[in-house]
From TrEMBL, chains A, B:
Classification via InterPro entries: DNA-bd_HTH_TetR-type_CS, Homeodomain-like_sf, HTH-type_TetR-like_transc_reg, HTH_TetR, Tet_transcr_reg_TetR-rel_C_sf, TetR_C_27
Gene3D superfamilies referenced in this protein's UniProt entry, alphabetically: Tetracycline Repressor, domain 2 (1.10.357.10)
Record flagged with keyword Transcription: yes
Organism field: Streptomyces composti
Protein name: TetR/AcrR family transcriptional regulator
Taxonomic path: Bacteria, Bacillati, Actinomycetota, Actinomycetes, Kitasatosporales
Transcription regulation found in the keyword field: yes
Length: 195, 195
């Protein structure tokens, strides 16, 4: 990579992802990342003080890609709350299924990393259930959903649909029945939410 | 063990479970099982033709213990369908949580075995969703549940509650929020089923 380019955190994270893809999470080192960027490992440490901090940041970046894509659906009030909730759940499932199917090695790498990064995962789950909470609140305000506690309901919706976003189930997503199973679960949950 | 006792399949399976608990699924052999029973390995092979058949039978027995306990709830028509469904889901969760918490080594052993025994697991899941189907059919007949296809609805109910019976989630079952999470999911699902 051209040494004249400024070494940004984002450039380091891109290189880290590529190194993780190539070497796997057990073997990837900060020296590999520095070598891929044509810089010293000291330069990498100026942005990420430890290898653990770098692994956490790259995991967070991967998780945030999903939540950022979904935030647009939450904000799109031109769609009614039921439509937004269906689209949000479908988009979450599609995002996960694509990550798992398009690049299985990178997906497996991130499954290992998320297993290590409890705090980054907890923040990600809070972010996603926070998005769901906003859709449910809008539905309650519009009189189409019923919930005494939208945050608790959001958590329940997230848990009921876990089969279609929890990476543990990735092998099941190739099952030909999966799309019908997903539709049946979403219909049941939406019926449960209606006022 | 007294050699005068008749060597039944059930006695072999009991001994196999004990051997698995002691040696773990990777190391347990048919010779260990025969030794624990004080018989020749030929005697064991007369009941189970291969080591694989023995492992499948012991896995099936472990899975069947759960389904047999639940069958009583399905048959108890003195309870209305909603009550039966709530009790069934709670009993399934309790059974799994007990298996995981009371004897973690044996539970870990069976998690390995179920990973190998795809057919036994598929039959077990069919058995459980079949039980759910009967409760839902009774609810539809009584006019309290709504479903065009009770078998598909049963599958959806099973999937929405996976967090509370799929052994993959066993580590989460110690989380202090788990009981509240389970109650919220069951309430949401029951609302979705109501006619």
């Amino acid at each position: 990579m051209a040494a004249t380019e400024t070494l940004t955190a984002e450039r380091i994270l891109e290189a880290t992802e590529e190194v993780l893809r190539r070497h796997g999470p057990a073997k990837a080192t900060v020296v590999d990342v520095a070598r891929a960027l044509g810089v010293s490992h000291g330069s990498v440490y100026r942005h990420f003080r430890t290898k653990a901090a770098l692994r956490e940041a790259v995991t967070k970046r991967w998780l945030d890609r999903t939540s950022e894509a979904l935030a647009g659906i939450v904000a799109d009030t031109s769609r009614d709350p039921e439509r937004r909730l269906r689209d949000w759940l479908a988009a979450l499932f599609e995002a996960k299924r694509h990550k798992a199917g398009d690049d299985p090695e990178l997906f497996a790498t991130y499954v290992v990393l998320t297993g290590e990064q409890g705090r980054a995962v907890a923040e990600h789950l809070d972010d996603l259930t926070g998005q769901l909470t906003r859709i449910i609140e809008d539905g309650v305000a519009a009189g189409v959903f019923s919930s005494d506690d939208p945050a608790a309901t959001a958590r329940a919706v997230f848990h009921t649909t876990g089969r279609f976003h929890d990476p543990q189930y990735a092998p099941e997503w190739k099952d030909p029945r999966t799309d019908a199973d997903f539709a049946a679960v979403v219909d049941l949950v939406l019926r449960g939410l209606r006022a």
